[in-house]
Design a protein that fits this description.
The chain is mainly α and 97 residues long. The chain has 4 helices and no strands.
């Protein structure tokens, strides 16, 4: 019987109208939320952080490039030292001249 009563009920447009007015009023207040009211400032901060992160990446890449150069130079210096100390004297001692 309860299902039959519910099927026979009619919508109350006054209640609906009041509900939509309430929803409209509350939606109008959304602009007061900090994330929305300060949205432009938040976006600016995020963009600034992104720029700073990119700068740090660039600096890190440059530091690694310099480190690689130093390692390569050190490696070359070591090879030169080894050639001079161990290979060159043995070549001279083998040479008949």
């Amino acid at each position: 019987m309860a299902a039959a009563d519910r099927a026979a009920q009619q919508a109350d447009f006054d209640v609906l109208s009041h509900a939509f007015h309430t929803v409209g009023d509350e939606i109008g207040k959304l602009s007061n939320l900090p994330a929305i009211a300060s949205g432009e400032r938040i976006l600016t901060e995020i963009q600034q952080m992104s720029t700073e992160i990119q700068q740090m990446r660039n600096e890190t890449n440059q530091q690694f490039a310099r480190l690689e150069e130093r390692i390569a130079a050190s490696h070359q210096s070591l090879l030169t030292t080894l050639r001079t100390r161990y290979i060159s004297p043995s070549i001279h001692s083998v040479s008949p001249y």
